[in-house]
Specification:
This protein is of the alpha/beta class. About 30% of the residues lie in helices and about 25% in strands. Strands 3-2-4-1-5 form a 5-stranded parallel beta sheet, with helices on both faces. Strand 2, helix 2 and strand 3 form a beta-alpha-beta unit. The model has no long low-confidence stretch (mean pLDDT about 95).
Length: about 240
Amino acid sequence: MTGTLTIAGLGPGDLALVTPEVSAALADATDIVGYAPYVARVPVRAGLTLHASDNRVELLRAGEALRLASEGRRVVVVSSGDPGVFAMASAVFEALEASPQWQGLPIRVLPGVTAMLAAAARIGAPLGHDFCAINLSDNLKPWPMIERRLRLAVEADFAIALYNPRSVSRPEGFGRVLEILGEAGRDDRLVMFARAVSTPEERIETVMLREARPEMADMRTLVIVGNSATRRVGRWVYAPRQAR
C-alpha cells in the first residue's frame, strides 16, 4: 500500500488559524474526505478530488478514506477544529480496528485549533484552571449519560466547555442542561456563548446562569460554564490559576 491517510483539523473557521502543517497536507493531497461544509472550505484545484458526505455517516466516510488510501491515494480527512476532539480521528481508528487489511497504512493526525480554545481566547481565559469538555449530542451516547457527566462536572467545580448544545432535532436538550445547573445552585455562575468564532458571524455573549436561555445557543455555538472562581475583569472573563 503506497497511499497515505492524514486526519487534519481545519480550525474554527478563519484561514489564518489553519496550521502550516495542515496547509501543506492539503496542498499535497489527491483526495479530501469529510462532512460537506468542511470539505467546502478546501480550495478546488487541478488534481484534487473532493468527497463530501452527510454528518451522520462518519464510519462510512472513514472506511472510504481508508479504501482510497489503500489504492495509493494521498487522502486527507478533514474536520473542523481539532480532529481528535469530537471529530473524525476516532471514527477513522474505529474503522481501522474493524478492517485489519488496512492497518499497515501510513496514518497521521494533524492537530487544529478547536472551538473550545478559539472561544476561550476571544473571551479571555475561562479555561485557565481545571476544566472538562462535554458533547451534548445524544446521537452516539444516551442522554442519561450526558446528564450524569454534567452533574459530576458541576460537583467537581470544573469549568465546562459544552459542544453541540442545541440542534433543530433536539432543541430541548440545552434547556435541560440549564435546569441541571440551576438545580445544583449555580445561578451565579458566568455562562459564555461563543458563536461562529473567527468568522464574520462571530458573536460573544456572557451572562449569569440565571439569565441564560436555551435559544441563546445553536449548533454553531460553543458554551463555556465558569467554575465558582470565574470572574470578570473589564470585558474579559478568566478563571484564576490558584484554587481556593
